[in-house]
Amino acid sequence: MRTIGVEEELLIVSAGSGLPLPLAGAALDAAGTRDSGPVLNTEFKQEQLEVNTRPCGTVDELLAQIRAGRALADAAAGLLGARIAATATPPLYSATPTMGNPRYEVMAERFGAVAREQITCGFHVHVSIESREEGVGVLDRIRPWLPVLLALSANSPFWKAENTGFASYRTQMWSRWPTAGPTEVFGSAAGYDRAIAGLIGTGVLLDAGMVYFDARLSKDNPTVEIRIADICLYAEDAAVIAALIRALVETAAREWRLGTAPPAVDTGTLRLANWQASRFGVNGPLLGPLDGRPRPTATAVNELTGHVRHALEQSGDLMFARAGLADIFSRGTGERLQRQAFKRRITADVVAAIVSATHGGRRTGGNATAPDENRYQSRH
Predict the structure, then answer these.
(1) pLDDT tens digit sequence for 225-236
(2) Strand pairing class (215-217; 39-42)
(3) Would the pTM count as exceeding 0.85?
(4) What SS3 class is residue 162?
């Protein structure tokens, strides 16, 4: 069984005003060190905390660590009069240049406003691999499925107190970095290494840490790292997406071992698919993973679950994934709750609703059309 672990980038906000607060260093000091369970780290901005889970064998274990990590971060922030919010962009924002370390300061100088305005929170899923060759084989075969995962995680409709019209405006902000987004097919570990070396050789990037592909090989762990998703408002949604990603990686690894060619989807189409998922989330049409043609979101999600069904069954995650996807289609992603809390203008009430949901349990309800369950049963 492949292990899974996640990185959650979380926002530190004022309990009163809802504005982001640059308290990451102080929060880490308040939290202290731990020998087990999730670990807290700083991120690009001091208004953010990153929670890293340990590698987990089951989704239940992962969900428990996600909840524990959010509680740990919130307790540390609470000692400083702040709260932790799982939102991929801050609804209220006061620009601050507070970076996390000297490397980030260099990035800020080189990349200007792109770095200054970079206060977005992503959700990164690590899945174990047996070798770098297998990992690159996986990267080449999961490319067209990633925009569906972005839609399922969308949680950033607001930016600088404005309604952006996007379900995941984080994607638009993040895409300003020079290497962000989908990749070409690499073909082999050597091809992957050549591509990275070529990017670094341009002198545009500081180092390999600035290779911000939607999915990449981890430089520190024997994992593939899928980075396309927004931080999920609900911990349960994060676990569902992680389960789908593990199944997607296992399916791709099997295809690689069998010599099945990667899907022939060009990178330009994948960029459009990302844009479409960023714009509409689960509320509008997505592009089909394999043909690039518009279709209802539920149909695209059904295609994904059908593609990874066998792996979900083997890991014991099929029913968990089905129930979680039904919840997402019933009550929406975090984007919908944020819009429901929004009235005539964005206030601290919006942030308060995000904070409450960040640390609450599964909540169903809403008006979205769920995927047809008979179609799930008959086709998948």
Answers:
(1) 999 999 999 999
(2) unpaired
(3) yes
(4) strand
